[in-house]
Amino acid sequence: MIAKFEDIDVSALSLDELQALVEAARREITHKEQTKLFDVRNQIESLASSVGRSVEELMNLDARRKRAAAKPAATERVVKYRNTTDASQTWSGRGKRPRWLQEALDSGAKLENFLVA
């Protein structure tokens, strides 16, 4: 007869016996989890088969929906302003003004001088 957990007096067990019990419980938990996952996998395969599809086909259908609903890629901002002394420094006109432009404006330059034609 298998003892129920309530029937086991764990306080009477030695440290080695407790560690062995814990290890046995861990092995049993792992076994039961694997068995449950195997059963779930069989159920999923059975459901897919019942609609004439494979599990892979069903998963790809879901991926296609997500891709179709995905937000389009951000477009690159158009350069509206360029530094006249360093052409690699640009600004799209959005957000905070870059330091090079703000310093030039503080020195008396006009914003129109940096417009890209």
Which features characterize this protein?
117 residues; mainly alpha; 2 domains; two-stranded antiparallel ribbon; 3 helices; 50% helix; elongated
The main sheet comes to: 2 strands, antiparallel
User: Uncertain segments of ≥5 residues (pLDDT<50)?
Assistant: none
As for the number of domains, it is 2
Care to count the β-strands?
Answer: 2
Topology as a string of helices (H) and strands (E): HHEEH
Distance between the termini: 91 Å
Mean pLDDT: 87
Q: Rounded to an integer, what's the Rg over CA atoms?
A: 34 Å
Strand order of the largest sheet: 1-2
Name the overall outline: elongated
**Helical/strand content category:** mainly alpha
The number of helical elements comes to: 3
| Helix share bin | 40-55%
Strand percentage: under 5%
Q: How is the topology of this model organized?
A:
Blueprint (H helix, E strand, L loop, with lengths): L14 H36 L4 H15 L11 E2 L7 E2 L7 H8 L11
Antiparallel strand pairs: 1-2
Structural description of this entry:
With 117 residues, the protein is mainly α. It has two domains: 62 residues; 34 residues. It has three helices and two strands. Strand 1 and strand 2 form a beta hairpin. It starts with 14 loop residues before the first helix and ends in an 11-residue tail after the last helix. This is Nucleoid protein H-NS.
Short description:
By secondary structure, this protein is mainly α. It has helices at 15-50, 55-69, 99-106, and strands spanning 81-82, 90-91.
